[in-house]
Design a protein that fits this description.
By secondary structure, the chain is an alpha+beta fold. The chain has five helices and twelve strands. It has two domains: about 140 residues, OB fold (Dihydrolipoamide Acetyltransferase, E2P), CATH 2.40.50; about 110 residues, OB fold (Dihydrolipoamide Acetyltransferase, E2P) (Beta Barrel), CATH 2.40.50.140.
């Protein structure tokens, strides 16, 4: 009887062991389902900051940025903006196309400048350049550059990165070519045409851009402004916008000789005289001097008037206007 009882106990123990669940073992490629599978800190220590660089108070390194992102859900974006410092270690395959077509770049930064922490990098995703302006050349950022990125952070699956579409920008870059394409001489302003109706307090393109640069992406001024400049480019949808909706879209610069076209301002979906709809696309032509009136906005790094006819052309030298 005693032997039977012992055999019965052993059988029960075997059943209990066989019913116990196996430990979870992710299959290859399943790391997106295992948030903790990507460490946020590794050896060695971060490479020291270059001498002479002013680092904003509260700037975090790549490891710290990754730790913040690790605590986010998929596609969740931080409400706070951060300065993140690091060394450019690789470029996204779409980096060059992004700069050419949209003025934003995508690259990875690491905590060290010797390749030892490249696998634990942070992605600067679709970031703009100096002062939140669009990048103009792929030469502005190179492998080995020390950079400081500023903007909100997000987690896309297990990629830790900045929020895209120009929500973040390169605050500082050690590359000597950085920001050269957006540098301007405020003295470069073509004088107003004689007899032009320019209200007191009218802004130049530079001044309008400065106001927009101080806005968060998508934010709009509460005040309306007069902005003056010379039409140097018509948007590809300018003609269709006029024919279908009575509003035009074009770009103005501070000079009429092409020397400041890269630092322009967009007249976006503007109406015509006295807020009336435009009736013909040739009411706006290259070389026209115009004064716009309306609220200003920062649309993902594009500085422009608020659209849908909220702004209008107060004055123009175009005889058909």
């Amino acid at each position: 009887m005693k032997k039977s009882i012992l055999m019965w106990v052993a059988t029960i123990a075997m059943v209990m062991v066989s019913c116990k669940e196996n430990p979870y073992m992710p299959s290859p490629g399943a790391t997106d389902q295992v948030p903790d599978s990507m460490p946020v800190t590794v050896d060695p220590d971060p490479t020291p900051d270059p001498e002479g660089v002013t680092i904003p108070e509260g700037t975090i390194n790549v490891y710290e940025a990754r730790k913040i992102c690790q605590g986010l859900n998929h596609q969740q974006v931080t409400t706070e903006k951060y300065y993140v410092k690091g060394w450019v270690c690789s470029f996204n395959e779409k980096h060059a196309d992004g700069i050419t077509n949209y003025g934003n770049g995508t690259f990875n930064i690491a905590a060290t400048n010797d390749g030892k922490s490249d696998k634990h990098s942070f992605e600067a995703y679709q970031v703009y350049g100096k002062n939140g302006q669009k990048l103009t050349s792929i030469n502005e950022i190179a492998i080995g550059d020390f950079v400081i990125i500023y903007g909100p952070l997000t987690r896309y699956n297990n990629t830790y990165e900045t929020a895209g579409r120009g929500a973040a920008y390169v605050y500082y870059c050690s590359n000597p070519e950085f920001g050269k394409g957006t540098e301007v001489d405020p003295a470069k302003i073509t004088p107003d045409p004689e007899g032009a109706d320019v209200p007191e307090g009218t802004l130049t393109v530079y001044e309008a851009r400065e106001i927009c640069a101080g806005l968060a992406s998508g934010a709009t001024t509460t005040e309306e402004y007069y902005v003056k400049g010379w039409v140097h480019k018509l948007d590809s949808k300018h003609a269709s916008g006029v024919s279908q909706y009575g509003n035009g879209t074009f770009y103005i610069s501070a000079t009429n000789d092409g020397t400041t076209d890269k630092t322009d301002f967009e007249a976006y979906q503007v109406y015509g005289k006295n807020k009336a709809r435009l009736t013909s696309a040739d009411q706006v032509e290259l070389g026209d001097f115009v004064v716009l009136k309306g609220k200003l906005t920062n649309y993902n790094g594009t500085y422009e008037t608020v659209g849908r006819g909220a702004a209008y052309i107060y004055y123009s030298t175009n005889p058909k206007w």
